[in-house]
């Protein structure tokens, strides 16, 4: 496990220092990928693509409504699929 950790953490730190997302995509967001740039190079030497996280408006409406409901004291309930 320590070997895996020592191999993964530098990549995560590198991504964070360059403003690139790491980890899973959160609900309510989408990733947009651009062309590879020479400004960011991976450890293997390949050029990385520009990556931005943007709001996914359809999903964001669900998140906003859940936040409003929570702040209003409305309890969350599961809805069954019909």
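Sequence proposed for the structure above (82 residues):
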């Amino acid at each position: 496990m320590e070997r895996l950790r020592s191999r993964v953490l530098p990549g995560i730190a590198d991504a964070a220092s360059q403003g690139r997302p790491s980890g899973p995509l959160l609900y309510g967001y989408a990733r947009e990928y651009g062309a590879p740039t020479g400004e960011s190079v991976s450890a293997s030497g390949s050029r990385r693509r520009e990556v931005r996280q943007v709001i996914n408006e359809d999903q964001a409406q669900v998140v906003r409504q859940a936040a409003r409901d929570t702040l209003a004291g409305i309890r969350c309930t599961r809805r069954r699929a019909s």
